[in-house]
Write a structure and sequence with these properties.
By secondary structure, this protein is an all-alpha fold. The chain has helices spanning about 1-25, 50-75, 80-105, 115-125, 130-155, 160-180, and strands spanning about 40, 45. A two-stranded antiparallel ribbon has the order 1-2. Strand 1 (about 40) and strand 2 (about 45) form a beta hairpin. Helix 2 runs antiparallel to helix 3 and helix 3 (about 80-105) packs antiparallel against helix 6 (about 160-180).
């Protein structure tokens, strides 16, 4: 009787183990939440970073275009007026590209600047003359530096051909605008964020001389 009971228990244990192994084998692997955020499109996978790029570039134009318009009447420096006009015209072109890409990829983009950008516009609207010139150059130069890192990051790693093409255009515009703003001679480079500190380099292994002495 005891032998029979032990045999039944052994068989039951074997069935449980086999069932557990089967469940492990057929269960799908866990999915990385970040990887699950992509949408498949005809141009390739569209990630959250790709969508964020379109949103940020759109919002950049929504405050820099009116800021450039303000420069025509509030700036004292002729160079600031000229730079404001050029950046405003460029953003009209870039905005058209943004809207086109967003429509093609099914991305919803905003129709107004974010809270910080609205605050910057209010600040500029309250100024004129040299104060406007200085703040216009520095506010826009700092903003371009931030968006440049976003555009460059997406350009370097996106799997979507439309976003890759758009990001390349964005890089060209942002670099041109940074140079234009710096050409005013008003940018305070000491106030710009410093580049990120690089990670410590791994120790270099000492070369071993394998020659016999």
């Amino acid at each position: 009787m005891h032998r029979l009971l032990r045999g039944e228990l052994f068989m039951l244990g074997g069935f449980v183990l086999a069932a557990a192994v089967t469940i492990v084998l057929v269960m799908p692997p866990s999915i990385d939440p970040a990887a699950a955020q992509f949408t498949q499109t005809s141009a390739g996978p569209l990630t959250a970073a790709d969508r964020d790029l379109l949103v940020k570039v759109r919002q950049a134009g929504l405050w820099e275009m009116p800021a450039g318009d303000m420069a025509q009447t509030r700036a004292e420096s002729q160079r600031v007026k000229e730079v404001g006009r050029l950046i405003m015209e460029d953003h009209k072109k870039l905005d058209a590209l943004t809207v086109q890409a967003a429509k093609k990829l099914g991305v919803v983009i905003p129709d107004e600047p974010n809270a910080d950008q609205q605050r910057w516009l209010a600040q500029l609207a309250a100024e004129s003359g040299p104060a406007f010139d200085k703040d216009y150059a520095n506010l826009l130069r700092a903003a371009h530096g931030k968006v440049f890192t976003v555009v460059a990051g997406v350009r370097s790693g996106t799997r979507n051909t439309e976003i890759r093409k758009f990001a390349q255009e964005g890089i060209n515009f942002v670099m041109r605008h940074m140079a234009l703003l710096e050409s005013t001679g008003l940018v305070d480079f000491q106030q710009l964020p410093e580049p990120a500190t690089p990670s410590p380099a791994p120790p270099v292994a000492l070369a071993v001389d394998t020659r016999r002495h």
